[in-house]
Amino acid sequence: MDDTPTQLPGPLSVLIPARDEGETIEGVVGHALGSGAAQVLVVDGRSSDDTADRARSAGATVVDPDSLHPELGPTVGKGDALWRALPLATGEVVAFVDGDLTVFDELLPRLVAPLRDPAVVFSKADIRRLDANGHRRFGRVSQFTAGPMLSLLFPEVADVTEPLSGQVAARREVLMSLPFEPDYGLEIGMLLDVVEAHGRAAVAHPDCGRILHGEQTDGDLEAMARVVARTILDRAGVRTAPRELRPARTGG
User: Which CA distances in Å does 46 have to 65, 119, 128, 179, 206?
Assistant: First the structure.
């Protein structure tokens, strides 16, 4: 398959959520631009370092999500920040790529390639996570929480080996039609909502090579597991603690 930038399925906007990623953001922006992105937005979540300056110097536009929909108050998580920034994306195809990546092979070209097929509306990266020594590892929340729950409650997506991957691409109108979980539930919520609306065949899970990104603390992983479990149970119709999703949009 030819995954060169000239083969992208349409104008591409890349949204990069970041917070204190000054050490890595230039490389991620460079990868996006080198992959043919027409627009790169770094959604900067109150960084205390030079993330914003480095992103601009690398060629990105920096967005402060707190300034978007200020009536909602400060952003409460990654999903909220991306929901606020999404209407600024001008591309027919929109990709979300994490800002802390240091190894990403041909991530974006491989990620957007399936969207050349008009029957595919959403692409979630199948990636090989590396540890600091370059060995493959699986995300613990994917392996011990999301995977078992999906196999029981949503077996049609049990073959998605990286259901929590934050590296996704979709047609803009599809993303605009989705409600967004404001927090760690974003990735699994999008996957299940797209499958519900468009069917499993409309979701691609391409091999996007290796990635290396920052480690999370055990406390962060515990919080993530709780939110991921809640999101899956919610989509399965099990009553969970109430929370406020960011609503689907219509139009531009």
Answer: 9, 38, 29, 24, 32
